[in-house]
Amino acid sequence: MNNRHVAYVEAGEFNRDTKYIETRITVDGRDGYPVEPGRYRLVVARACPWANRAIIVRRLLGLEDVLSIGFCGPTHDERSWTFDLDPGGVDPVLKIPRLQDAYFRRFPDYPKGITVPAIVDVPTGAVVTNDFPQMTLDLSTEWSAHHRPGAPQLYPEPLRDEIDEVAKRIYTEVNNGVYRCGFAGSQTGYEAAYDRLFAALDWLSERLADQRFLVGETITEADVRLFTTLARFDPVYHGHFKCNRQKLDEMPVLWAYARDLFQTPGFGDTIDFVQIKEHYYVVHADINPTQVVPKGPDLANWLTPHGREALGGNPFGEGTPPGPTRDGEQVPAGHSAA
Hints:
Strand order of the largest sheet: 2-1-3-4
Largest sheet: 4 strands, mixed
């Protein structure tokens, strides 16, 4: 996610820079950062779909006691995400006002955007990684010794090839596809992006018509990756990004699937619709120059019955749901339907 006073719309087709800090936190510490409880801090923004993935996975796996979390506010300036939700505008653990401070601690001349999610090494105050696709996979695999009892297998070995294949198509066509629509700078570029996006959503509707989850009989990393885009579809992407063939609640299979996940502990209880809308409609000033934030849509329908249990499967397989959201990590009352 880039910065407020920067133009987001690109001439022709939007192309996302996908080169991230590829350092990994692993059991063997081969990149210099071994898995250690209490050593690292996950920095996120509830508004960001990429960061939302990490929030969900951390909660599902029960890593709260070993990986602390810091929340940036929903808007930011041209320089960096900021900790404006914290007293004094300073992260209480890292003692910094801007996420860029952690990036510059490790890379003084860091030339790229200051993105969330990021994991920061608390003792040095330096960013370790912002590689969001690898980050959640590593939470499932490298951090497994610290998972809660009953944690789900979000990246089970027998299904990894299929999860990777599905997740790749979800990323290129849906997660990034909505941005390709919203940031297109030409009619031709926009219409091509629109057609690609809805072709993929039709494919997902067909896939999910007779199976409850994307891969296998339980929730996996693939479901997490799709969910964060679906949750933002009607509040933001349908109007702001012109993804308006249908609203999510007009696509029966995907709408039921999204509600099923939303009502699963660890998913809907991470969604802050107020922050989501504020981020997109305020930060993307070249798309929405008035920075007026829409009042709707009504969110109560997220809690209506979805009927997906009839397809079989169990969200957590032989495991169990996570417990209540920790104090200090709850979505504020009135910000979500959950």
